[in-house]
Model the fold of this input.
Amino acid sequence: MSTTATVETAGGTTGRRRPPLRSVLIWTAVAAVGAVAWTVLALARGETVSALWILFAALCSYAIAYRFYSRWIARRVLRVDDSRATPAERNADGRDYDITDRRVLFGHHFAAIAGAGPLVGPVLAAQMGYLPGTIWIIVGVIFAGAVQDMTVLFFSMRRNGKSLGQMVREEIGLVGGIAALIAVFAIMIIILAVLALIVVNALAESPWGVFSIALTIPIALFMGIYLRVLRPGRVLEATGIGVALLLAAVIGGGYVEDTPLGDALTLSKEWLVLALVVYGFVASVLPVWLLLTPRDYLSTFMKVGVIVLLAIGLLLARPVLAADAVTDFAKEGNGPVFAGSLFPFVFITIACGALSGFHALISSGTTPKMLAKESHVRLIGYGGMLMESFVAISALIAAVVIDQGLYYAMNAPAGATGGTAETAATFVQGLGFDTSAEDLAAAAAAVQEPSLISRTGGAPTLAVGISNILTDAFGGSLAAFWYHFAIMFEALFILTAVDAGTRVGRFMLQDTVGNVWKRFGDLTWRPGNVIASAVVVALWGSILYLGVTDPLGGVNQLFPLFGIANQLLAAIALLLVTVLLVKHGRARYAWVSGIPLVWDLVVTMTASYQKVFSDDPAVGYFAQRERYADARDAGEVLAPAQDVGQMDQVIRNSTLNGVLQAVFAVLVLVVAVHAVVVVVRALRTRGGVPTTEEPPVPSNLVEPAGLFATAEEKRAMARHDAEQRELTGSRS
Amino acid sequence: MTTAGPLTRAWRGVRWYLREWSGEARWDDYLAECAEHGHPPMSRREFERIRSAVAERRAVDRCC
Done:
């Protein structure tokens, strides 16, 4: 067979060769730079530290982890085998199963996993200082997040691209499977609500933001019609026009502000909720070619563009860290952005970028059906997640280089800051930061926003950070343009996530209900689509509304729920991987997913326990409920609530959040108990137990394993091509 | 083409990547396949309609 060459290079069956001197020198240098960067970050106290040290610590750590750890996992733990045909090769139908170039698939996979999460979480976690977030993002991605993405991708690929829920049902059992299914659906609803909440907080009372975001809808519709009717299939042309129009919309927003149109676009949070809910519903029942697909092209191009721009900006501006390495809030657990101490809450707040359970759904969705070679799980699963982690690190840097007085004025809930520059300045001074009402007003004026006080949710803070960095890097007086550009790009892909997520939720609902009511499961049945979409939108819309009107601040209340939910999903994914490693007779390597699993369970269960049982009303949902219920019964009104109605609201919301929190944790525990039973049973059986892995089929494809083809791989490909030509030539 | 060599190659690479990523290249693949088997190809409009009908039934994976 012509595939032997790739088998040898990827399988690692040949004897250990001495590495060439050049590669030893390069990797020693990478390790040295990384070590210096970490040392500077760890030891610096009180002096000015450049933010670039964070960037270098991250890049060097990623490089070493990718080169050594991910390769070891691929070869020893998973034993990827390029002589086996992947589902894409076996079932190629040009639709679901499609052999895809590894570099192109990397782009698809990255576009699917990277969203607003890695941009927002690190901004909120900056309350703890720059060091905890930096360490968790880098160490977390190397040992947990990237491992999860890569191993789930591998096991799904070995099972024809089965979904996470299906695999849990088949490998861990029916009860575990049902628990996982409910957990996935509920977590999705929470995620959609929190993402929408971030958009609402970024756009409320901001006519410039509303104007440019609203215009993305007609722009996407125009692109959809262009691609359908005017010039079918010319995606790059249409996207080019779309991006140009989008930039024009951002610039145009600056001119509508002081016009009657600007007044009309100054929307309250409640109106924005309504607009989002209507948008989410309409978008999820419209044909995808009209809105979703073109909008997705736009948001992906903008996403990649902004990330590249920010990376260049950081290198040029070389900002200095303004936050402390570890703040007092980290030790005391009394921070205004979100309550709770460093452990476990930093590891909850930063989910995406370090470990994100949601990725397990994507690694067991489209991507495994498109892999050309088994060895590509390393580049796409592990490499893709490292890239997302880099986005998170950039966001963290943007949040810790801005003036910290401004940071707290923007991120503390309105109940704490009082909503005006004067009250906010007093509040922030009380926290021990240097600022004044004039400073806060000047910061808002610089980006042409009416106010920046309590613009929670992370997006506005990130936009201020990006605006500062890019203004420093490229000069000019474009601060307001960069701010609204950043807001537009964040809102753009959150909206894409909202319509795509609503659609996925609709499919899940139709699929599940379809088991008992056949007609409902038919995706082409219009009434079924409409009902399922309405249910999904109503669910996340109502949680969104509760968050927006929460007197205690929606982000403060809901973000922990979002983070814990995402990490609990990761626990389910890591449980599955651990069970499969044991079942395949590789229990000695089970620690690879077992250690991140135990860490994740300890973190999420501690956090869940505290959110449910803590006596501290700032942390525990039920303690909070009790405090407000007692006060109401005594006829008092507790700040920040302003009347009895708001007291009732706090009581209702904390009860709901507490119940949701408890349900999520119990669902994961159900899966965990079942997984332990399966593991014990498998360990008692020697040599592994049967799984649902597809039997091997020899592959007839020759492809390079890594990002760049080695000389050996190029020769193997050329040889294979020649043979194929010979074969087809002799046949005709 | 001494100085334009690497630039042209880079541009071709970027173009190839974007066309593959966005799915535009599917049309070229289809034309090539038709030519190989001697089928007359359908119109581009028809081809793209079929592709979007397939996309309709597929969930778009987008994460947070």
Q: What stands out?
A: Residues 25-56 of chain B form one domain. Chain B has a mean pLDDT of 88. The interface with chain A takes residues 17-24, 27, 44-45, 47-49, 51-52, 54-64 of chain B (CB under 8 Å). The first helix of chain B runs from residue 4 to 22.
